[in-house]
Amino acid sequence: MTKLSYLHEPGVLQNLKIRYELNEIYTYTGNILIAINPFQRLPHLYDAHMMQQYKGAPFGELSPHVFAVADVAYRAMINEGKSNSILVSGESGAGKTETTKMLMQYLAFLGGRVATEGRTVEQQVLESNPVLEAFGNAKTVRNNNSSRFGKFVEIQFDKQGRISGAAIRTYLLERSRVCQISDPERNYHCFYLLCAAPQEEIEKYKLGNPKSFHYLNQSNCYDLVGVSDAHDYLATRRAMEIVGISDKEQEAIFRVVAAILHLGNIEFAKGKEIDSSVPKDDRAKFHLKMTAELLMCNAEALEDALCKRVMITPEEVIKRSLDPQSAAVSRDGLAKTIYSRLFDWLVDKINSSIGQDPNSKSLIGVLDIYGFESFKTNSFEQFCINFTNEKLQQHFNQHVFKMEQEEYTKEEIDWSYIEFVDNQDVLDLIEKKPGGIVALLDEACMFPKSTHETFANKLYQTFKNHKRFIKPKLSRTDFTISHYAGEVLYQSDLFLDKNKDYVVPEHQDLLDDSKCPFVAGLFPPLPEETSKSSKFSSIGSRFKLQLQQLMETLSSTEPHYIRCVKPNNLLKPAIFENVNIMQQLRCGGVLEAIRISCAGYPTRRPFFDFINRFGLLAPEVVEGNVDEKVACKKILEKMGLKGYQIGKTKLFLRAGQMAELDARRAEVLSNAAKTIQRRIRTHIARKQFIALRKATIVVQSICRGRLACKIFEQMRREAAAMKIQKNTRRYQAWKRYRKLHFSVLVLQTGLRVMAARNEFRFKKTTKAAILVQARWRCYKAASYYKKLKRGTIVTQCLWRGRIAKRELRKLKMAARETGALKEAKDKLEKHVEELTWRLQLEKRLRTDLEEAKAQEVAKLQNSLQELQYKVKEANALIVKEREAAKKAIEEAPPVIKETQVLVQDTQKIDTLTAEVENLRTSLESERQSADDLKRKYNEAQKSGEERQKKLEETEKKVHQLQESLTRLEEKLSNLESENQVLRQQAVSMAPNKFLSGRSRSTIQVSSEIINIEGWLYLISQIDLHIPPINHRDPSEVEEKPQKSLNEKQQENQELLIRCISQHLGFAGNRPIAACIIYKCLLQWRSFEVERTSVFDRIIQTIGNAIETQDNNDILAYWLSNASTLLLLLQRTLKASGAAGMAPQRRRSSSATLFGRMTQSFRGAPQGVNISLINGSMNGVDTLRQVEAKYPALLFKQQLTAYVEKIYGMIRDNLKKEISPLLGLCIQAPRISRASLVKGSSRSVANTEAQRALIAHWQGIVKSLGNFLNTLKENHVPPFLVRKVFTQIFSFINVQLFNSLLLRRECCSFSNGEYVKAGLAELEHWCYKATDEYAGSSWDELKHIRQAIGFLVIHQKPKKTLDEISHDLCPVLSIQQLYRISTMYWDDKYGTHSVSSDVISNMRVLMTEDSNNAVSNSFLLDDDSSIPFSVDDLSKSMEQIDIADIEPPPLIRENSGFSFMFPRSE
Questions:
Q1: Which of 255, 762, 989, 1104 has its CA 20 to 30 A from that of 1206?
Q2: 72 touches 59 (CB < 8 A)
C-alpha cells in the first residue's frame, strides 16, 4: 500500500477494491496485513504446497499472505530468541477466528512435533475450538458465529523450534447474554445444541423446543441457515472427548446447561406477605423442581435462595423476603454465575489437557480479540471492548511510529518533525485511579443505594471539562466518549449490575452443598477472611487487571498486526461496501498508520527501481556507468522537486511527488509517441510516392515492350514460315529413305532369325536331353541314399525309442510313488544305505564263490587228468599184453595144453577191463558233476548279474526319487520367498560346488557301458552336437589325475573381474567390457547352472565403480556397458521350468555312472563346441536361446536395477548442475533492465547488453552440450540420451513456470522478452543436437513457452478468454491463466493486462471448479520416475555384432580364454 502514488483514503480504498475483485484478499500496509473476508472457500491459498512456498521466504518477496506474517514471527523467534505475538483484530464477522486457525495451522507446519498420546499440542489447540465456540459463540446482528469473549493463545517452543506446550487465556465473557438477548440475535450455541440432542437426552433433561424457554424465546431466531444443531451437538461431544473431558464430566456439563434453561422458566408472583414472592404457578414449580434435580440440591433450599436474603447483624440473623422483581434478578444472577463458572472450568480443563512447558524460553502469542464496537445501544460490554481497543491502538501506534523511526534511522534521514498521535488521555479517562470511570463505577457498586442515575451524575460532575467526555443534551444517564475511531454513546442503565461479580451467599451455600461433585466444584467454599472482609468483586477491575497483564505480555514480545475487514453486512462474496470498509479501517487504526506514513515520506523506492521507471525523464543521466544515487538526485533536480530526501538505499518522496513524476513520465511518453507517429506517417507517405512512381515506370515499360513484341512477332513469323518449308522438304526426303531402309532391315532380320531359331532349337533339345539324363541319375542315387538313410534313422530311432520308453516307464513308475516319498524320506535313505551294504556284501560273496569254484574246478581237472593218465597207462598195458599174447600164440606149438598161466592172464585182462569200465564210469560221473558245476556257476553268475542290474536300477530309482523330492521341496520354499528374493539388489550366493558322487563302480559290465555310451551318443547328437566319447577303460580314467575344474573356473573368473574393473574402452560403438562378459558367461554356461558366484561379483564390480556419483564420465561408461549387456541378455535368455527355484543344497545327481558322466558333460570343458559359439555370434538374430536358471534371471533383474539407478544418478547430477542457473534465468538481471531504460541507440552497448542478457542461459546450454558430449563419447544408447534430456527439459519447464507464478516481479513485459531470448537459446541447442539425441525435449517446455508468449504479446485487453485459452495458451489451466493475468505488469510500455470481463469469466470458471482439488493447484510437479522399461530399451537398440571383438591384453595370453578369438570356418 505504501507504494501507491496517492496515499490517501480514496487511493487506499480503490487499491483494496481492485485486489478484492481479483480474489487477492491480503494486502500489506507496511508490515501490517489487511485481510478482507471473501465469504467463500479459497482452498488453493492454504494447501501444503503454499505453506512450503512461504517457508523461509523473505517478507514481501511473495504475494501478501497470512502465512508470511506467521513465518516472519517464527523466524524472528528462532533467529533472535525473542518471543513474538500476532494481534488479530476486527469487528464481528471479519474472519478473525478463521485467520487465527490459519496461523495455528502454519505454526504447526513449521514447529510440529511427534504425537504424544496420539495428539500433538497444536492439534489439541485446534480441536478445542469447537468446544469454546459452542459455549462462547453466539449469533449477533453482524455475524452468525460471533465470539463473545477474547482469546489469547500462547504457543510455547523449545530450543529446536518445535512446539512444546500451549495455553489459552480468555477475556470478558458476555455473561448478560445468558439472560437477555435482542431480536434477531441468539443465545449461546450450547443451549440450542442441547435442545437438538437425541431424543433420549431430551427426555432425560425434560427439554423441548427452544421456543418454550424464557432465555431463548426473547428472540425470534432459533435456527441458522445451513447449520444443523443436531450435527453440531454430536461434533461438540466428539471434540470434548478429544480434549480430555470424560463422559461423566460431559453429562454433568450438559446437566448444568439444562438446569440454566429450566432456571430461566421459573416465574415469581407476590406472596402472602408484603414484598414477598413465590413460584407463580405449577409450571414454575415444575421447572424449579427440575432445576433442583439437575443441580442435585434441595428444591426448597433453591426456592429460599431465590426468594429470600439473610442479613447478619451483631444482634441477630434476619431473613428478608424479596419481591417478584428482585427474585427474578436473583434468578438471573444465579444463571449468569453458574454459566460463567462453567465456561472458566472448560478453559482450565482444556489448558490442563494441552499442558504447558515450564522450560520454554520463547513463545508466539496469537491474540483473537473483538474489534471496536459502536451500536445503537452500547452497554458495559461495549465499554470494556472499546477500552481494550484503546489499549491495543496505543500499542499499535507506538509500534508503527517505532517502525517509521527505525526505517528513517536506518536510511539516515531527518524525521524529527513527524507528529505522533497519542490516546493516553482517553486511557486516563477510563482507567486512572482514583478518578477514572472504572474507579467511579466500582465505588458506585460498593454503595447499596447507588443507581445508574447517581453514577451518571458523578461522571458528569467529574469529567465536565474533559475534552474526551461529552454529556448528551437529551439524556440524563447516557454519556459519550470520543475514542480514536469516533464518538460512542453509552447507556449506563445496566452498568452497575453488569459490573458486580460477587456471589450471593445463599447461592454459594446452596450449590456448595450439591450432591453433584461437578456442581460443587464450580462453587468451592470461600476462605473465611474473604467472606468476612468483603463479598464485593468488580468485573471492570478484574478485566482491567487481565488487560494490564495482556499488555505486559505483548510489550515483552515483538508484535505483528493483522487487521480483518468485513466487506459487507450481507455476509456474501463479491460485495464491496466502501463506507463500511472505510469505517473498519479507521477503527482498526490502518488509516492512522497511513497518516503517520504520510506525515513523513510515504513513497519509498530503491534507487534501481526509481531509475528503471523514471530514467527516461533524463536519458543523459543514465547513460554510462553513473552511480545510482547521483543519477536519482540529478533526475529529481531536473524535474524541480523539493522536500525529498535520499537515504542509503532508498529515495524518500513526499506525498504527491510520485504522482507528479508519473505525470511527467506520461508526458514524455506521449511526446515520444507523437514523434513516432509523425515519423511513421512520413514513412507511409514516402512509401506511397515511391510505389506510384515505380508503377508509372512499369506501365511505360509494358507499353514499349508491347510494341517491340509485335515487331518481333512479325519477324519471327516470317522466319518460321521459311523454316517450316525447309523442314517439310527435308522430312519428305527423310521419310522415303527411312521406308526403304526399314524394308531392307526387315528382310535381313527375318533371315537371321530363322537361322538363329534353328540353331537354338537344336541346342535346346541337346541340353534338355543331357539335363533329363543328369536328373534321372541324380534321382536314382538320391533315392537310394534317402532310402538307406531313412532306414538307418528309423532303425536308430526305434532302438533309441525302445531304450527311452524303458527309461520313461521306469521314471513314470517312480513318479507315481512321489506322493509317499516325503513321508518315507528317512526310510529310503536307510534303505539306500542297506542296499549299498548288501551290494558290497554280495560283491564279496560273489568274489569268494568265484574263487571257491575256480579252486574246485582246478581240483576236478587235476583229478580228471590223473584218471586220464591212469587210463592211458592201462590201455598201454593192455595193448602190450595183447601183443605179447599174440606173440605167444604165434610161437606156441599146435597142440596146446591148458595150463594155469593162461587162466591167470585172462583174469588180469578181465580185472583190467573192469577197472577201465569203472574208470569210464567215474569219468562220466566227474564230467557230469563238472557240467553241473558249470551250469550252477552260470546260473549263479546270471542271478548275480540280475541282482546287480536290479540293484543299479533300484539305485537309479532312489536317486531319481530323491531328486524329485528335493525339487518339490525347493519349489515349495521358493514359492514363499520368490517375490522378496527377486527384488533384492545384491544377493549373496554360495560359490558353485561341483556335485560329487560316490566312487565309480569297478564292476565291468559290458552291456551297461554300451547302454551308457548309447545315451551319451543320443544326447550329443540332439543337444550339444559333439561326437560320441571314445570307449575307455574306467581304470584308465581313474589313473589320470586332472586339475579341478572348479579351481580353473575360479581363476578365470578372477581374471575376468580384474579385466572389467579397468576402463576397456569401445570397439566402434560397442562397449568391450559388456561383450567380453557376455562371451565368457555364454562359454562357461553360467546361465544354465543352479549355483554360481560370477554374477554377484560382476554386480559388485559395477556397484563399486559407480560409488562416486559426481563423475558423469564413469557413470556414462557403465550405463553404456550395463545397457548393452542387458540387451544381449534380453535377447538370449529364456525362462526354464525350474528357473524360479532358489538354489539350495541338494544331493548329488551323479551317484550312478550315467549321472556322473552327464554331469561332467554338462560342465562344458574348455574346447568343447567352441566352433559352435564362435560361429553363432555373427549377429543378434543368430543368438541362440538359452534355458536360463534362477541365478541368471536374478542377474538380469539386478542389471536392470543398476541401469535404472545409473540413469537416475546421471539425470540428478545434471539437475543439480543447472538448478542454480535456473534461479537466475527466470528474472532479467539489472544490466538488461538498465539497457531497456537507456535505449538501444548504440550498437556496442546493445551487444554487451545482449551478452549479459543471455549469460545464464548460455551457461545452461554449455552444461547441456558438455553433458551430451560425455554421453556420446561413452556411446550411451540414443534412446537413453533422449529420455534424459526429455526429463531435464521437463524439469526446466516446471522450475521456470512455478517461479513465474509465485513472483510478481517476473510477470513483466521486459522479463518475458528476457526469458523468450533464453528459450530461443535452448531451441537452437535442440536443433544442433538433432532429433536423435534431443527427441521431443523442446515440446516439454510448452507451459513456460505459452506463458512467456502471453507476457510479450501486444494488445492484451482486446483478447477474449476463448482466444487466450484455446489459441494462445491451450495447455495452461484457468487457474494458471488467472494467476498470470492478475500478476502481469508492463514495465516497458505501461500497457494493461487482459480486460476485466476476461478476469470475471476466469473467476466464474474457477468458482465452478472450486470443488475439484486438482484444479485448485496452479503449480506443476516434477516427474522423477524411470520413463522406460527393458522391453522399450531392447526395441530401441540396434543389432550388436560381438564376433570380432578383440580381447584386452590382460586375458589375451591366457589359454583359458582362447574362445575369445574369432575362428575361421
A1: 989
A2: yes
State yes or no: is 92 an active-site residue. yes
pLDDT at 713 over 90: yes
Mean pLDDT for 454-472 is 90
> How far is the C-alpha of 562 from the C-alpha of 388, rounded, in Å?
16
Residue 480 phi/psi, 5-degree rounding, is -120, 135
97 an active-site residue? yes
Residue 214 has phi, psi (to 5 degrees) of -65, -40
Which residues lie below 8 Å from residue 1410, measured CB to CB, with a gap of 6+?
40, 41, 43, 1416
For the cut 80, the answer to whether the pLDDT of residue 367 exceeds it is yes
Where in 450-512 does DSSP place strands (E)?
A: 469-470, 478-483, 486-491
Active site residue 147: yes
Q: Give the SS3 label for residue 1106.
A: coil
Longest Cα–Cα distance in the chain: 218
362-368 and 84-89 strand pairing: parallel
Backbone angles phi, psi at 1113, to 5 degrees: -65, -45
Q: Using the structure block, give the residue that is written with the C-alpha cell 506446550.
A: 165
What are the Cα distances from residue 427, in Å, to 388, 437, 465, 1281? 10, 10, 16, 75
Radius of gyration of the chain (CA): 57
**In this predicted model, what pLDDT tens digit does every residue of 946-987 receive, in sequence order?**
887 887 888 787 777 777 677 666 655 555 454 444 444 333
E-strand ranges in 916-977 read none
Q: Containing H/E element for 596?
A: helix 590-599
**371 catalytic, yes or no?**
yes
- How far is Cα 1362 from Cα 247, in angstroms, rounded to an integer? 60
Whether the bond between 184 and the residue before it is cis, its omega within 30 degrees of 0, is yes
Beta strands in 391-494 (DSSP E): 469-470, 478-483, 486-491
Residue 597's pLDDT band, with cuts at 50, 70 and 90, is low
Catalytic residue among 371, 588, 589, 647: 371
Instruction: Answer yes or no: are the C-beta atoms of 838 and 954 closer than 8 Å.
Output: no
Query: What contacts 1206, CB < 8 A, 6 or more positions away?
Result: 1106, 1115, 1118, 1119, 1122
Please indicate whether residue 1323 is annotated as part of the active site.
Answer: no
* Residue 1038 is a catalytic residue: no
- Distance (Å) of CA 705 to CA 498, 698, 699, 713: 114, 10, 10, 12
pLDDT, tens only, 1113-1171: 888 888 989 888 888 888 888 765 434 443 433 333 333 333 333 333 333 333 333 33
Residue 1081's SS3 state is helix
Cis peptide bond N-terminal to 434, omega within 30: yes
CB 1419 within 8 A of CB 1372: no
What is the crossing angle of helices 1255-1273 and 1243-1253, to 10°?
50
From the list 97, 129, 1274, 1381, the catalytic residue is 97
Decide: 645 and 406 in contact? Cβ < 8 Å. Answer: no
Say how far apart CA 1294 and CA 708 lie, in whole Å: 69
Contacts of 469 (CB under 8 A, 6+ apart): 429, 459, 463, 479, 480, 481, 482
Q: 147, 388, 389, 1401: which is the annotated catalytic residue?
A: 147
Q: What is the pLDDT of residue 787?
A: 92
Q: Of 614, 617, 624, which Cα lies nearest the Cα of 1242?
A: 624
How far is 1235 from 1245, CA to CA, in rounded Å?
8
In this prediction, residue 882 carries a pLDDT of: 79
> How does pLDDT run across 141-176, given as a tens digit for each residue?
878 888 888 888 888 888 888 888 888 888 878 888
Q: Which of 15, 89, 92, 477 is catalytic?
A: 92
* Angle 110-114-120 from CA coordinates, rounded to 5°: 80
pTM of the model: 0.50
The catalytic position among 27, 146, 603, 1286 is: 146
Average pLDDT, the chain: 80
d(CA 852, CA 1071): 73
- Please say if the pLDDT value at position 729 is more than 90: yes
Helix ranges (H only) for 1071-1169 are: 1072-1083, 1094-1105, 1112-1132, 1153-1162
